[in-house]
Amino acid sequence: xxxxxxxxxxxxxxxxxxxxxxxxxxxxxxxxxxxxxxxxxxxxxxxxxxxxxxxxxxxxxxxxxxxxxxxxxxxxxxxxxxxxxxxxxxxxxxxxxxxxxxxxxxxxxxxxxxxxxxxxxxxxxxxxxxxxxxxxxxxxxxxxxxxxxxxxxxxxxxxxxxxxxxxxxxxxxxxxxxxxxxxxxxxxxxxxxxxxxxxxxxxxxxxxxxxxxxxxxxxxxxxxxxxxxxxxxxxxxxxxxxxxxxxxxxxxxxxxxxxx
Amino acid sequence: xxxxxxxxxxxxxxxxxxxxxxxxxxxxxxxxxxxxxxxxxxxxxxxxxxxxxxxxxxxxxxxxxxxxxxxxxxxxxxxxxxxxxxxxxxxxxxxxxxxxxxxxxxxxxxxxxxxxxxxxxxxxxxxxxxxxxxxxxxxxxxxxxxxxxxxxxxxxxxxxxxxxxxxxxxxxxxxxxxxxxxxxxxxxxxxxxxxxxxxxxxxxxxxxxxxxxxxxxxxxxxxxxxxxxxxxxxxxxxxxxxxxxxxxxxxxxxxxxxxxxxxxxxxxxxxxxxxxxxxxxxxxxxxxxxxxxxxxxxxxxxxxxxxxxxxxxxxxxxxxxxxxxxxxxxxxxxxxxxxxxxxxxxxxxxxxxxxxxxxxxxxxxxxxxxxxxxxxxxxxxxxxxxxxxxxxxxxxxxxxxxxxxxxxxxxxxxxxxxxxxxxxxxxxxxx
Lengths: 260, 431
Prior knowledge:
Chain A folds into two domains: 2-96 and 243-259, ATPase, nucleotide binding domain (Nucleotidyltransferase, domain 5, 2-Layer Sandwich), CATH 3.30.420; 123-239, Nucleotidyltransferase, domain 5 (2-Layer Sandwich). Chain A has helices spanning 40-55, 84-95, 134-144, 151-157, 169-181, 186-208, 224-234, 247-259; strands spanning 2-8, 12-19, 27-35, 62-68, 80-81, 101-105, 110-116, 119-125, 214-217, 238-239. In chain A, helix 3 packs antiparallel against helix 6 (186-208), helix 4 packs across helix 6 and helix 4 crosses helix 7. By secondary structure, chain A is α/β, with parallel strands linked by helices. Chain B has 431 residues and is α/β, with parallel strands linked by helices. In chain B, 54% of the residues lie in helices and 10% in strands. Chain B has helices at 4-17, 21-33, 36-39, 47-64, 80-84, 92-101, 105-114, 123-133, 153-163, 181-201, 208-231, 248-253, 258-281, 305-311, 334-343, 351-364, 379-382, 385-393, 414-430, and strands spanning 70-73, 88-90, 142-146, 170-173, 290-295, 314-319, 369-375, 399-404. Chain B has a four-stranded parallel beta sheet, sandwiched between helices. In chain B, strands 6-5-7-8 form a four-stranded parallel beta sheet, sandwiched between helices. In chain B, helix 6 crosses helix 8 (123-133), helix 7 crosses helix 8 (123-133) and helix 11 runs parallel beside helix 13. Chain B is globular and about 65 Å long. The N and C termini of chain B lie far apart (47 Å). At the A-B interface, helix 2 and strand 8 of A face helix 19 of B.
């Protein structure tokens, strides 16, 4: 039995097709990550078709589809939509059954989900502002003219940091431009930036109450610098899925088993 | 025949075209003099909605009519005082909510912003301040406010007094933090002094018989409101568009009038009918419905919050602002009684008072979850969010603290609100 989860985020769209012999079990037979672009509907359709092709199955063989993410409501071929809160929780638990806290940092928002026996019982989300999200890092990478992929290495190999005092993405960008103008080492700025994101997320985790073990999902979890900074601030080890960006779609595919 | 929506749209368009008092007065005159509004039930979505609209408009009309001296009042005052003194109450905070309903808040907020009102001031007060500056509100003779719960009213109301040049007719009722015999008499004396002073300025003698009459009506309103609240403990099927958060004006601002008594009698009759119907239908599909308690106010501009909740099989079965927190009043001791009413408020003093009232509500209404709408700038409500959430958690009641703005649509993100509410519904339904 095949089920599918589609996570339509502000930056990227992820599709996971799951082959589950029994409900609650499953094996990922294909996944696709694409850029969402200007139309979430088109992105979902194209990504879904690509995932089917990759799995070498037809669309009709899929028993149920669940859409999640900010664009979840605009997917006409989905059987149901469920929030990313439930989907990330489900996806994370499917990979790390004992986890009690999920930190998800996506392109446009960040959230902390508290779990009890695998079920979400509480959550916090960032407030209508890009600080503490993937978007924040993207804007800073552009201002620094350094590829975002290099941020993690720079963080890990730099000992000193420069504190970034602005919370707002726009003001932080100006602050960085000003620091570059003063001749401050860009590596130190990057270290400071990553710590500023970690500080923001740590505050959310502390508000909801840290419970271990912790898992991190979403595209930003691929940045080992952010993961390391968070581990340091939270004083705990963070479990990272092999492909953290598809966790929401994976959870959606598992939840689709319930309706198929 | 036009329906309520058309009426609101027409009012909105006309108000936006011409924002002056004379025009509004004329408009209100036309609306409230239409006899068929009183007769035709199908103009409104329910009987409660019909009487709510008629009495609210009548209250507004009185304030704009020039027939009575107008007095601005803040929300937590005992309005029995106003009716006893025969001064027409006008509630700027409630009117800020109306301006959000009518889509006028952008104009009033812009005006207050141009006049340097701080952006972290609550938008009920910012919008009302903008309306005063735009000359939309009627000119008051008196301005009365109190220190209970809200820290913005006393400051913004004093600015209104200065704007209208009536600082000498500005009264601040200082509500003590603690409830003691001494604080009761301190508050009672203030209410008496204000009443004597206003009567003197109006060239009248303090009429204690009028106070007695108003207090009796207030008790009658309380009796019917209690009956409504009792009935709501088991009611699931409500009239279409019924929302307890729409009754803020009558619950507070009409206490002591026969209109409040009629409204709550009519509401009781209507909800009794729905309860009877609910019993007959034995609606099994509603058995798993999650029962929610709403804390603080709601956004008054058009939004989807309550539809999302309904779609998720959740129903707001009670609202904190409809809680009867005060004892029956003594008509022979009006000032003492009104002081007692004020000081009994669950928002007075430490957060434990509010928490205790909330726990009464969660028990009475068999609450599965609570939503605290955290209105931007409202420190008295937001400040207790953590304690409320943690306390309710001990009773296995999840709480969603929903950050947003009751008046300023631009200060809320629809998508984020939707995700938070749906996420909360999913948590409730998984339990």
